[in-house]
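Ticket #4471: structure export looks truncated?
Reporter: QA, pipeline team
Priority: medium

Steps to reproduce: submit the single chain below to the structure queue and open the exported record.
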Amino acid sequence: MVIPREGIFYSRSRNHETKMTPLQLAYIAGFLDGDGSVLAQIVERKEYIYHYQIRFTVSFVQKTKRKYFLMQLQKEIGQGSLRDGNDGISELAIVGWQSVNTFLKQLQPLVRIKLKQINLVLKIIEQLPLTKTSPEKFLELCYLTDQVAALNDSKNRRVAAKDVEKRFKDLGIIDEKKPL
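Actual output as written to the record:
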């Protein structure tokens, strides 16, 4: 395993660069493997051209009594939003393809358990620009998104690729008879 000499994570929300040491990156990668999640979700967005969006999230969770740790982590990585759940759990979430892409690329060589999810999410993000002119490509990425959910043992999914495919066919966005 190669540990980078220095990681730089660009935080768009605060408009500055946060430099992390190799030790910080390794620790965060281990924390992500243990108490973190790498998610890709299909979200309904009526105002979008395809009526759906693929949303990317990296999150870390802790009991609310240890929320101070998430606040410290948020400060180290330079972004993310904190929220407290009603179940005594707090979450630090990094959302959006640009932020998630930059963050995961730094952690990719260090993560073990969530490596498949990271590789799939980075593959989806890399191919996102191709979806602007191709509903078929968007649908293909939705099926990859389903694979991320399967790796996460997702139980609360509201929209799956088959739902997107059905709507695309109903709206005439893709040819009903043409196989993908």
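Status: closed, not a bug. The export was complete when the record was re-opened. Leaving a note from the reviewer for reference: DSSP finds six helices and six strands in the chain.
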